[in-house]
UniProtKB/TrEMBL annotation:
Keywords: Glycosyltransferase, Transferase. This is Glycoside transferase family protein. It comes from Hymenobacter swuensis DY53. Pfam families: Glycos_transf_2. Signal peptide: none annotated. Coiled coil: none annotated. GO terms for molecular function: glycosyltransferase activity. The keyword Lipid biosynthesis does not apply.
Amino acid sequence: MLYIVIPVFNRKDFTRACLDSLRQQTTTAFRVVVVDDGSTDGTGQMLCQDFPEVLLEEGDGNLFWTAGVNLGIRRALAEGATQVMTLNNDVLTAPDFVAQMQAVAAQHPTAVLGALELDVSTGQPVYGGETLDWRTNTRRDLLETLPPEQRRGLHPVTYLPGRGLLIPRRVLETIGLFDEKRLPHYLADFDYTSVARRHGFPVYCNYDARLSTYPEESGQEITRRQRSLRGYYQHLFGIRGGGNLRNFTHFSLKNCPRPYLPYFLLNGYARRLVGYFLH
């Protein structure tokens, strides 16, 4: 059985829309676990009243993404999950999303799978996975190189985000949960899928499974739109900071091949120090 784990903190309208999209799936062979990390906007009441089928776990507001996901995964495993999917609340799932993911999972039972992401306002693809050259710290966005007629099926990638990430139980039993101690928020998903790939589990983006996202609502985009010295500090050192130097260091030490590590670190630090003002 597939269990979908959704960590939330406020923004109940996004959560409602996400759960409504899951109710419209062409298959019902899954359950949903929502981890409400101390929301103050009535999210908990809404879940109990309007979505009684959802399994609810609660935090005190200090879980952030990684610990919240891990709490939900533990609940899913205790319920007997054979697959776990992490899903952000600010996404909408296409009606055949779960069916498309499960069809591929049946053919590739040890694979970690992600989905093609579309802009909710335009319907255009915005993320389809990427590959990373550790030697030069350069990324290749698959959407920039794949012609439209090839935007289907499976494509191998270096890592995947946690928005619609399907993880077989065997992967969880082999490499454990997400690294909540060293990567409490950003990069935990890229780290986890990188570790899984190094342990021999295939990592694919499934272009036949589609999510709609709100690119302008991501934490990084909001921070960059409100540029300030305080925002710059949060970008580099805050738990939710997309350029957090400590998180990047942990990710690099864990995943970058040792011969390439010095340049990878220096290049990454430079990008984070100046990138806040360039985007």
